[in-house]
Amino acid sequence: MHKNDKTIYISNTIIDRKGARKVSDIPVEVIELLHRGQLETVNLTEWLAIDHIILLKHVLSELGLEQYSDTMLTGLGPVSKNKIMKVIPAVAMEWLHLFKLLPKEESSRIFDRLSTHRSDSVRCWAAYIVGLDETDLKQKLAFIRPFASDDHFGVREIAWMAVRDTVSKELSQSIRILGDWVQDGNAYIRRFAIESTRPQGVWAKHISELKDHPEIALPLLEAVKSDSAKYVQDSVGNWLNDASKTKPDWVIQVCKAWLESSETKETKRIVTRAQRSLAKKK
Fold first, then answer.
1. Is 264 exposed, middle or buried, given 0-12, 13-18 or 19+ CB atoms closer than 10 A?
2. 139-162 b/e with 16+ CB inside 10 Å = b?
3. How many C-beta atoms lie closer than 10 Å to residue 95's C-beta?
4. In sequence order, which ranges of the chain are alpha helices (DSSP H)?
């Protein structure tokens, strides 16, 4: 344990909490623990309530890196008050800047601490470090895999967002690699393969090539058209619903073919979700 690490007793009441519906209803002690990096968020309300600047100060102290605090915080000045999806990549970029100043072994040690941190928000930084780092696609997807299968919903979402730009720029190779992911026994990994290639993913840039030619990703979709996990089913349905906004006839054709070849309740559920936007237009 690092000399700056402090063991804090956390009651079962806090650990087992369901989470507040409004930021203003989050208990003060919960916010303090979250900002100290001592606790994971349990719902979207808590996740969005994190002040990543406060959290960063605590993590730098925990890791014995206080001397770099001013430099990193200065770099974050322009985005410190921005929305969370701007702040997380910005924090990750500051970590990458710091890594360039340190010996490789030290940078690796720090990254390992961040990627396995008890705070889901810190692990989100680590996922974006992978996404923003200058490595090739195959290596980047290999490094992002632990975050794609993280137990925390927020880390899993950030994982696909972090590499989406790379995936969209190298789409053909990405789909070939992700072809193995949709066969994985872990539903989180299968879901990542679909979510990272959505034509119009939420909180992410659109992938123009898939908006115009969704059939490129059909091998991925076909592999999970009867997936047993609702988590994956929802993603497949959302993918096709995205595509229906630019290529409605193609989506209708795919759904029809799937229903003819698969009579499972899972496929029927996916098809219904896939055509929800089309149904509203009727």
1. middle
2. ebbebbbbbbbbebbbbbbbbbbb
3. 22
4. 12-15, 28-35, 44-49, 52-62, 69-76, 84-99, 104-115, 120-132, 137-148, 153-169, 171-181, 187-195, 208-212, 218-223, 230-244, 248-261, 265-274, 276-281
User: What's the predicted TM-score (pTM) here?
Assistant: 0.91
CA pair distance 42, 225, nearest whole angstrom? 30
Per-residue pLDDT at 152: 98
pLDDT in tens, 79-103: 767 788 899 999 999 999 999 999 9
CA distances in angstroms from 98 to 70, 104, 107, 116, 170, listed in the order given: 12, 11, 8, 19, 28
Q: Compare 57 and 6 and report the one with higher pLDDT.
A: 57
Q: Is 235 exposed, middle or buried (0-12, 13-18, 19+ CB in 10 A)?
A: buried
Tell me the two tokens of residue 97. 């800047």
